[in-house]
Structure formats: C-alpha cells, structure tokens
C-alpha cells in the first residue's frame, strides 16, 4: 500500500474546486488527522465527525437505524450512508465514511479486523449523488491501531485514485 500523499490530494481538490468532509467510526479521526497534516488543507477540507455508536450515526449522519442495528453498524451500506450524510451535513462535494472492527470480537463473532469504507460524491448543489468508490478492507494480522491507520490510508488513497482517474491526471 502506497503512503497517502496529502499534497497530491490538495492539488486536485483545489484545482477542481472540490470540498471534502469525513465521517469516521473505526478510524476514530485518523483520516481527519492525515488530511489535517497537509499544509493548507483548509482550502478544501470542511471537517469531520467521529460517530462511534448507532445513536450518533443515526442523529448526525442519517444512517438508517434498523439496518445499522441488525449489523452492529458494520456494513457497506452503513459506510455509504455515513459518507453521504457527512457530505450533506457539511455541505460539501465529497464525503468519506468508515466503519468496521479494529480488532477481533468474540461477542460479535468477529475473528479478524475488517472494515468498509465508501466515498460519496454529491451532484452539484442537490442532495443527489453517487458512490464513487467503496471497498472491504481486511486486517488479519494487524493490531487495533495498525488497522485504524491502514483503513484510513486505504480510503484516502482510493479517493486520490478516483480523482486522478476522473480528472485524467498523471
């Protein structure tokens, strides 16, 4: 996995006049910290929200409660709803959402860390948009902190890859 290049993301976001917000659960602010480590990130980065439980995901990100409760808030659908919800809440072009398990959990029958992320892009000034990237990330031999950082880096690199392909950069 390539190290995330915040300067490359900033250049594309600024050149295309795009804005970004982040909704994190599993990654607990790692994505926000990685973006914030880029000098001048305030030109495109609107902010983020770490929503660690179902009530916060439902109230602040418009995650559908019944589905989230059925999957303990861990599914691709929840990641998508988080990405869309944060984009609309922060009134920005692109939202990233992450959810998952940073470590195994016997009570949840989770044998290894895994996560979902989604990147949602708004269509103009409307509340309509589409998922432009999403994936399932495994972290079999990773510690809790390593998994959190790994998912953050995978999601940000997916955003950078999408933007480079969409705008035919490189």
What's a concise summary of this model?
Helices cover 40% and strands 22% of the residues. It has helices at residues 6-15, 30-36, 54-61, 65-70, 76-89, 144-166, and strands at residues 20-24, 45-50, 94-101, 114-122, 129-138. Strand 1 (20-24), helix 2 and strand 2 form a beta-alpha-beta unit.
Task: Summarize the structure in words.
It is a single chain. By secondary structure, this protein is of the alpha/beta class. The protein has a single domain, classed as Maf protein (Alpha-Beta Complex). Helix content is about 40%, strand content about 20%. The chain is built from 6 helices and 5 strands. A 5-stranded mixed beta sheet has the order 2-1-3-4-5. Strand 4 and strand 5 form a beta hairpin.
**N→C terminal distance:** 19 Å
| The named CATH superfamily | CinA-like
**Total individual domains:** 1
Envelope shape: globular
Major beta-sheet overview: 5 strands, mixed
| SSE arrangement, N to C | HEHEHHHEEEH
CATH topology: Maf protein
State the helix count. 6
Helix percent reads: 40-55%
Overall residue-averaged pLDDT value: 96
Tell me what portion of residues adopts beta-strand conformation. 15-25%
Per DSSP E runs of 2 or more residues, the count of β-strands stands at 5
Q: Please tell me how large the radius of gyration is.
A: 15 Å
Q: Give the low-confidence spans.
A: none
Class by SSE composition = alpha/beta
CATH class designation: Alpha Beta
CATH architecture: Alpha-Beta Complex
Widest beta sheet: strand line-up: 2-1-3-4-5
